[in-house]
Specification:
about 40% helix, 9 helices, Rossmann fold, alpha/beta, single chain
Length: about 240
């Protein structure tokens, strides 16, 4: 507790939306900026959790035509312009403190669903060692550690390894993403002694990354794989 106070004084927290310094001991986001974020609401796709454009359907166009390896995915926010800037700074500009707001939001808006999954562990999407060395941290690990602490779920940050460097996903088509991630991950250790897990990441786009990890975990004996992200985009 004292350590956190000292760190907060030496390195003031910043709003994840406007990046301005926040008052000591106050909220983790500016009041005005909180209005710029949009929560994922019903109707949602029953598989990937993204918001549907209209009522009457259970699945988005992607999930109607693609087999996913996970049971279900959920996200706290829509990936709008404000969230796009926030995630960029979180991943590439060293704003590690944003993880506190993101994790608290995931617990606040997704907590009931996450607990209902009955998962034994959170598994962050891993970075390749070269990218981790360049960036200095893995944002998915930060999210998992904060979320795990809030919800009382252990984090298995070394269970899945990214063994092959891959091209950035955001400019690729779905099929290109799938090929890009082929054999990019492997499990560490002598086996997986888990039956239900939640994969944690910052953004859900097509699900290609979590599908690859989900399939790997299922082959190893994990019965149910779920996904939780800070935000999700619209179907490609």
């Amino acid at each position: 507790m004292i350590k956190d106070i000292v760190l907060d004084m030496l390195f003031p927290r910043r709003c994840p939306v406007c990046d301005s310094v926040l008052p000591f001991g106050g909220d983790l986001i500016c009041e005005d900026c909180s209005k710029k974020l949009r929560n994922v609401r019903e109707p949602r796709c029953r598989k990937c959790g993204r918001m549907l454009t209209g009522a009457g359907k259970e699945y988005c166009p992607d999930c109607e035509n693609v087999r996913h390896g996970f049971e279900r995915a959920v996200s706290a926010f829509v990936y709008n312009d404000a969230m796009q800037d926030a995630i960029f700074r979180f991943k590439y500009q060293g704003r590690q403190e944003y993880a506190d707001f993101f994790a608290e939001s995931m617990s606040k808006y997704l907590g009931r669903e996450l607990r209902g999954f009955g998962a034994e562990a959170l598994i962050p999407v891993p970075l390749h060692k070269d990218r981790l060395k360049k960036r200095g941290y893995n944002q998915a690990v930060l999210l998992s550690e904060r979320l795990g602490k809030i919800m009382g779920i252990r984090v298995e940050k070394d269970l899945v390894k990214r063994v092959r460097a891959t091209a950035p996903q955001k400019t690729l088509t779905r099929e290109e993403r799938r090929k890009n991630l082929k054999k990019a991950f492997k499990l560490s250790g002598n086996g997986v002694k888990l039956t239900k897990v939640i994969i944690v990441d910052d953004i859900y786009t097509t699900g290609s990354t979590v599908d690859e990890i989900s399939d790997l975990l299922r082959v190893a004996g994990v019965r149910s794989v779920y996904v939780a992200t800070v935000c999700s985009g619209t179907p490609l």
